[in-house]
Amino acid sequence: MSGKPSLSDTKADANGFVEHLRIVDLVTGYGKKQVINGVSLEVSRSEIVALIGHNGAGKSTLLKAIFGMIPIWQGQVFLDGQVVPAPKPHELLRTGVSYVPQGNRVFTDLTVCENLEMGGITLPDKQRLKKGMERVFTLFPALKDRLKQRAGTLSGGEKQMLALGNALILSPKVLLLDEPSLGLAPPLISEALGRIRQINRDSCVTVLIVEQKVREILKIAKRVYVLRNGCVSFTGPTEELKDELKLREVYL
Amino acid sequence: MEYLLHILVLGAVYTVLTVSLDLLAGRTGLLSIAQAAFYGIGAYTSALLVTQVEAPFLVGLLAGVAVAVLISFIVSLPSLRLHDDYFVIATFGFQMILFSIFNNWIGLTRGPMGIPGIPQPVILRWRVDTHLEFLVLAIVLACFAYLVVWRITSSPFGRALHAIREDEVFAKALGKNTLRFKVTVFAVSAALAAMAGSLYAHYITYIDPTSFTVMESILVISMVIIGGAGSLWGPLVGAVLLVTLPEALRFVGLPSAVAANLRQIIYGSLLVIMMMFRPRGLVGKYGFSK
Amino acid sequence: MLQALINGLIAGCGYGLVAVGFALVYAVFRILHVANGGIYATAAYVVCWLTVDRGFGAPAAISAGILVGGTLGWLVETRIYRPLRHSNSSSLVLLIASLGVLIVVQNLLSLVFGDGTRTLRPGVVQSAIVIGSLHITLLQVAIVVVSTLLYVVTSTILFLTRIGCLVRAVADDHYLATVVGVPTDRVLLLVMVGASALASGAAILVAYDTDLTPMMGFEAVFIGITATVVGGMGSFPGAWLGGLLIGLARNLGGWWLPARWQDAVVFAVLVVFLLLRPQGFFGKPLKKAHL
Amino acid sequence: MTSDGIPRLRCEGLRKCFDGTHALHDVRLELPSAGIVAIIGPNGAGKTTLLNVLTGFLRADAGQVFLGDLELTRMAPHKISRLGIARTFQDLRLILQVPARENVLLARPNQKGERLLTALFRFGVPQEEVRNREEATRWLRFVGLEEKANEAAGELSYGQQKLLTLACCLAAEGRILLLDEPVTGVHPEMIAQILDMLRLLRDQGRLVVLVEHDIAAVRQVADVVIVMDEGRIIAQGKPSEVLERPEIIEAYVG
User: Does A245 touch chain D (CB under 8 A)?
Assistant: First the structure.
């Protein structure tokens, strides 16, 4: 799968899907320890793809590598069929890729408003920042009431909104989400994932999402990749995993 | 010739100091800035006993060691509850307090006036009064310090120290009482530094607080780091190099005031350069790189 | 007693500023930036050299001093800290390198300007406000005013501007700052230059009040460290208050004890805080280094 | 004390909070004196926290831990370890620069050479070292790493490093082994090898407790499965029963 990317890569396939994000034979890890042993995956435009698997399977690591938080040892990342040579966070943000790290991280010492300003730091002017904020507030009106509150004092659900808001303020085309349900009480989880689906529908954003709450994520994702020991052990449309036995087989 | 011997004696005294600090910083990963204080405790205890009650050299030396060990507990037990930067700061605080005592408890230490007239040592019948004899004594003590540290590091005790340096949690999980090891090693290190202090006091025959400042601690740290922390020969290389280097400057014909500053500048630059390009030191293995 | 209190406050104002610079760097870099002491002393010496030896006016000299301090900070960050950070060195490695810089700078100063004490104070008798037995020079009033002003300006920048927000974001969560696209290296550089300028300003103020020695940088470091520990590592108001407290402790300690024990008082405070309340007044609880 | 006279590890009412979320919520557990017990559950269920509390690395907010009649609740980790409760860590903790054998030697309990004076004067230390080396070699052989004994632990593969930590636990004379993810991330062939070892250890009368994500492995080896979710124990029993229950899969994928 090497060589120059050709334009034909971006053309719609038979189902009318357009490739948006593609990863080919990616290998990475921390220090000496290899965590991802050659993963290839593909996300189409406006699609929600879930990445599931056990603790330590390498899901978070994969997202970090795609976003350039850790160096890629081997393999390539393609965006719109164009290879991204060595992904760097600020460059990816500019091309419309946003990443929300694990556990809905926000700047706890900053206020909600300041958090959003930081989220929009790469925007070229104030106008767009303002517009972005407005958009975030229409999505999450709850945040608007808490503009001056320190983010550390927000509830779990609000933190999740803010973490998403920090990314959405840039109106990204691709969202990389790392376990948005982490630390949320069970009733809030489906709510949180519902929000993500809503955003995906409204703004046609492409979503690659890492989740542990498999049942919940299967409700919103279109396709699934199961990671085991740094390799893809299963891939297919979510329907295939709706079957209890199949789910048990690939997941447990 | 006398001069060369003098340099060598100093080299040996500093070797004792670097070996003692390396046991703590290099082998156990505890970077202490209080080494000069223990060096001073050895020097002062010994000097006071010998000048005030005319105790023999060996008694002074042993008393210095004993006092240093006692005070090491006062310093280490609370400081060891802290980690990394905080531990460094705590030892720094103790160094400054102890220095303040040397400098200000005039009734005991005569403060900045120092203690003159410390007699040269007599060990049994051996009166150590020539430079050559001093060199022999200093080398014997340096070898003793080396022997102690080597015995410790090459034993199961040293294995546990190594584990504490690399991963204290692992050591604890394997049933090692890490606090006991650290306190013990702190005491041994203080004892060796005190021994160096006692030797120094009897060699120079005059001590004042300026020899035991935090800068002296930093000098010893520099020696260990430049030589190579956590290695057999690193402390020796560091001590000899940093003792002889400024003397070389003097030979070039620089006035001594300039040479003193220039020496420090070289130490400082070496520290920076070492950290940037060779954090493990000239002959060392361990680079403070947890 | 009251005189000691006031002297303590005046000294504390200078210390507070030193501590704020120190705390700022610690909050953002998570390192003990002892090299700041070298920058501090250099700035004071530059001003002294320009005014006393070269006959420049105070404003020009002070600007030059701050400029030199800032430049030194820039050099330390770009030439030493940044490469070390990028090679994932531990904080101890950075501390040792920083110490090396302090030693080099301090000895360069004593090489060039001599070991002796130098003074910046104008030769003329200083006008003073005398209230009863209290004696406060106008210069001291100026020191308090300028120092407070500098603190207020720094806090305003930190808490009310966009740049300040960036700095706080990096201090809060370096990783997340990178994720949202904050140019962290540039922010760090800015903080370093700012903290250096602040230290330079503090140095110049203190130099006008007391005298200059090449060791003054070292003194600034230990006061900076103590004040930040007392106030709580990484807390700006805490550092400022810590500085004031240390000024008071030194001078009030001098009231009961002979003056030569002043430093011992400071370190006793440091050790007591480290042992009983290592997070200081306003800091967050220390994280245990385990698990 | 139980009928077989071997003190059992048990805990009552354990609670632990991190930033307001319950990592452990009233955990009561009595482990058998021997056998293989697997603790499973989704991420964040509190399994590793439980291990950390049992071994003294974390202090519980409430509740007690006992070994037989002996209370371990506030005991320091090294003291608990000396009672024969050995553990491994998820992020393999080893001294990477030194040979594998040195790691195992470190684990030997009650070494005379770890006292300062004996270290200095070497009374009986060489003889003790010889014995400990034999013991270390024995356990290295047991986990199949005898040939790697002189290689630096950092040079070993991930799976071999896991085996090495197991050897350390055994050399520490652990009768109760608490293993955090012993087969996660390990090659399939090596998994079978590790499971065989665990069975052998059980047959020697040890209690092996494993926190594991690999359900297939758990199914093969465990006598008892304990399922945790959100800081509570939600099921306990034989793997054939427990793993088929719908609430288990619910906990995992919910």
Answer: no
